[in-house]
């Protein structure tokens, strides 16, 4: 949440964190409480690799974690294809 001055506190109080910022390593393990569900929808190219908004150490704390690449991307592609089919059939 961009208007929060202390995002770490907001994250620690959350059961679900969805990050779609496009800034690698934005959310670290010390910002995530045990058992949180982390959905990483942000992507950034760093050192020739695709990275997400969550640091890799978040996996050890989160109950569920969507990796980058391969997390929400296939779901986005499937939704896009469904919408294209819907418009085609109109």
Describe this structure in words.
The structure is a single chain. The chain is an alpha/beta fold and 90 residues long. 24% of the residues lie in helices and 18% in strands. The protein contains two helices and five strands, in the order αβββββα. The strands form two sheets. The chain has a three-stranded parallel beta sheet, with no helix packed on it. Strands 3-4 form a two-stranded antiparallel sheet. The longest helix is centred in the last third of the chain and has 16 residues, at 73-88. The mean pLDDT is 85.
List keywords for this structure.
single chain, 90 residues, alpha/beta, 3-stranded parallel sheet, two-stranded antiparallel sheet, 5 strands, elongated
Please give the order of strands in the largest beta sheet: 1-2-5
Largest sheet, in brief, is:
3 strands, parallel
Helical residues, percent: 10-25%
The number of strands is: 5
List the helices and strands and how they pair.
Blueprint: H1 7-12, E1 16-19, E2 37-40, E3 44-46, E4 49-51, E5 64-65, H2 73-88
Parallel strand pairs: 1-2, 2-5
Antiparallel strand pairs: 3-4
Characterize this entry briefly.
By secondary structure, the chain is α/β, with parallel strands linked by helices. Helices cover 24% and strands 18% of the residues.
């Amino acid at each position: 949440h961009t208007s929060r001055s202390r995002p770490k506190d907001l994250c620690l109080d959350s059961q679900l964190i969805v990050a779609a910022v496009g800034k690698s390593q934005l959310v670290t393990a010390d910002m995530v409480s045990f058992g949180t569900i982390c959905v990483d929808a942000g992507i950034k190219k760093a050192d020739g690799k695709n990275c997400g908004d969550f640091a890799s150490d978040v996996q050890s704390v989160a109950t569920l974690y969507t990796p980058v690449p391969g997390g929400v991307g296939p779901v986005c592609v499937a939704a896009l294809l469904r919408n294209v089919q819907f418009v085609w059939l109109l």
